[in-house]
Design a protein that fits this description.
Strand 10 and strand 11 form a beta hairpin. The protein has helices at residues 2-27, 53-56, 69-76, 93-107, 118-121, 133-148, 164-170, 178-193, 206-215, 234-261, 281-304, 309-315, 324-330, 391-404, 428-446, 490-500, and strands spanning 46-50, 111-115, 152-158, 199-204, 264-271, 274-276, 336-341, 345-349, 366-369, 380-381, 388-389, 409-414, 450-457, 476-479, 485-488. Mean pLDDT is 93; it is low at 1-31. The chain contains 16 helices and 15 strands. By secondary structure, the protein is an alpha/beta fold. The two termini are 37 Å apart. The protein has one domain: TIM Barrel, CATH 3.20.20.80. It is globular and about 55 Å long. Helices cover 43% and strands 15% of the residues. The longest helix has 28 residues, at 234-261. Helix 4 (93-107) runs parallel beside helix 6 (133-148), helix 8 (178-193) packs parallel to helix 10 (234-261) and helix 14 (391-404) runs parallel beside helix 15. Bound molecules: beta-D-fucopyranose. The site of beta-D-fucopyranose has 10 residues, from loops.
């Protein structure tokens, strides 16, 4: 009897220990390799991997596709792009989409984030210029193939690339007229694919386009000559027009399609968390300001109908105004927010705009820093990516959005890391990275954030603009020396195991 009760006592202690260790696992956002296991996420949670049309399809003109702005930029500056010679074929996803869907299926994902190439569908960007039937068919086939294999598409309507003719004829996103063309393009997509696509995102990372291309002038041969004085306008105009395009598309979808098609629509923003460089009040304020300049720039109009007051104060009349009608249309124009998260930075107060460089916004009176005042980095440096790994930043961004923006539904549409490991198939560090970020996601869910999905960037090795394929971003390696063969990396096998095994790891 005595033995039995001590056995019971030991068993109780043991189960408390197991319970506690499970709880710790869910909370520990730095935990390596062992993510909170799949069944602990809601059953309708989307777990996927992503890509974008321009970065994988290749054969852009096959079947009548038009020229996009990125094709033009690369063609004119091939030497500046690593792997510029691989650009025409990319990884031939256009030809090999059926095989690629099987690779996705192997991963065990229930969703795939893809984008549609505007210039493949409407070669000169306009309905008047004609619809390219083969382009339409390609995405019909791809979407059908995904669904037949139990994979739901999450579609981005515009992922960086758009028709060159729109750029040449009207100046692209600098011109408000783009809204009309974008709306026509969206309407065509909703009509054509909306019976099967239930998750739409209108645009990808408008902030990156605005800051990189229009404030710092990267990959922009006609950049506004504003870098000397560091007083730029175009970045704000471009983002403004992105927002109006987004809101117009959402409005259209809600009015004409949503009721019958029963899908949802949102937009993808680039995200990071900013941590004060020191405990000085001015650095604490700088970190808050950078959060506003980066996330609030888009989210304040979306949730409250106008740009943040601090941006109005610091940017002045270079920040465009919304008409009253636009304010009403933009406010509430997202069924969900999608974020891309990679890493975070420190923020330091800087009153002199001439000392603000890198990729920072000249107007924010702050710079982003790799190290804080004590010389510490924000996270551990990953030897195979050279980047600082900071999953807590993902958790912080999710909490920030929950608290400031009415606890919306959120998808994490991109999260991943490059690898320069000489053996591209051995990407253990990517496993650690993904597991830690899945844990951060789970911790946020446990704290009430409505995260609805998580997508690894990328499903396959992707063409990363100036860096070409050098970052080997995929769960699948694509072997350029062997007929573009797709080979699952260690991370692909690990992700599959995580998604398909009900027993944890
Ligand atoms: C994001 C882009 C995506 C890819 C990753 C690495 O900013 O949205 O297309 O290039 O970075």
């Amino acid at each position: 009897m005595k033995m039995l009760s001590s056995l019971k006592f030991i068993l109780t202690i043991l189960s408390i220990v197991v319970l506690l260790s499970n709880l710790c696992q869910a909370q520990d956002v730095h935990h390596k390799k062992k993510p909170s296991f799949r069944p602990s996420f809601p059953s309708d949670f989307l777990f996927g991997a992503g890509s974008s049309a321009f970065q994988i399809e290749g054969d852009f003109h096959e079947g009548g596709g038009g020229t996009g702005v990125w094709e033009d930029r690369i063609d004119r500056n091939k030497a500046r792009f690593v792997d510029g010679d691989k650009f025409d074929t990319m990884i031939e996803h256009y030809k090999r989409y059926k095989e690629d869907v099987q690779h996705l299926k192997y991963l065990g994902v229930n969703s795939y984030r893809m984008s549609i190439s505007w210039s493949r569908i409407l070669p000169d960007g306009t309905l008047k210029g004609g619809i390219n039937k083969e382009g339409i068919n390609f995405y019909n086939n791809l979407i059908n193939e995904l669904l037949a294999n139990g994979i739901e598409p999450l579609v981005t309507i515009l992922h960086f690339d758009y028709p060159l003719a729109i750029q040449q004829n009207i100046g692209g996103f600098l011109n408000h007229t783009i809204v009309k063309y974008y709306k026509d393009y969206c309407e065509l997509l909703f009509k054509t694919y909306g019976d099967r696509v239930k998750h739409w995102t209108t645009t990808n990372e408008a902030q990156i386009v605005a800051i990189y291309t229009y404030m710092h002038g990267y990959d922009n041969d006609n950049a506004e000559p504003c870098q000397d004085l560091r007083i730029c306008s175009q970045a704000y105009t471009v983002l403004h027009n992105f927002l109006i395009c987004h809101a117009t598309a959402t409005h259209l979808y809600r009015q004409k399609f949503q009721e019958t098609q029963r899908g949802e629509i949102g937009l993808v923003i680039s995200s990071q968390s900013f941590v004060p460089y020191s405990s000085k009040a001015e650095d604490v304020a700088a970190a808050q300001r950078l959060m506003v300049f980066w996330l609030g720039w888009i989210l304040e109009p979306l949730f409250y109908g106008d740009y943040p007051q601090i941006m109005r104060n610091l940017v002045g009349n270079r920040l465009p105004n919304f008409t009253e009608k636009e304010k009403c249309m933009i406010k509430g124009s997202a069924d969900f927010i999608a974020i891309n998260y990679y890493s975070s930075q420190f923020a330091r107060y800087e009153s002199n705009r001439f000392k603000i460089g890198g990729f920072d916004n000249f107007d924010a009176l702050a710079t982003s820093e790799e190290f804080n005042v004590e010389g510490k980095s924000i996270g551990q440096k990953d030897q195979y990516s050279g980047r600082y790994v900071y999953p807590k930043g993902l958790y912080d961004v999710l909490m920030f959005i929950k608290e400031k923006y009415q606890n919306p539904n959120i998808y994490i549409t991109e999260n991943g890391t490059p690898s320069n490991n000489p053996n591209p198939l051995e990407d253990e560090h990517r496993i650690d990275y993904i597991a830690a970020h899945i844990n951060a996601t789970k911790a946020a869910i446990d704290n009430g954030v409505n995260v609805r999905g998580y997508f690894v960037w990328a499903a396959f090795d992707t063409f990363e603009f100036a860096a070409g394929y050098s970052g080997h971003w995929g769960l699948y390696h694509v072997d350029f020396n062997n007929s573009l063969k797709r080979i699952p990396k260690a991370s692909a096998k690990w992700y599959r195991n995580f998604l398909t095994s009900n027993c944890g790891h």
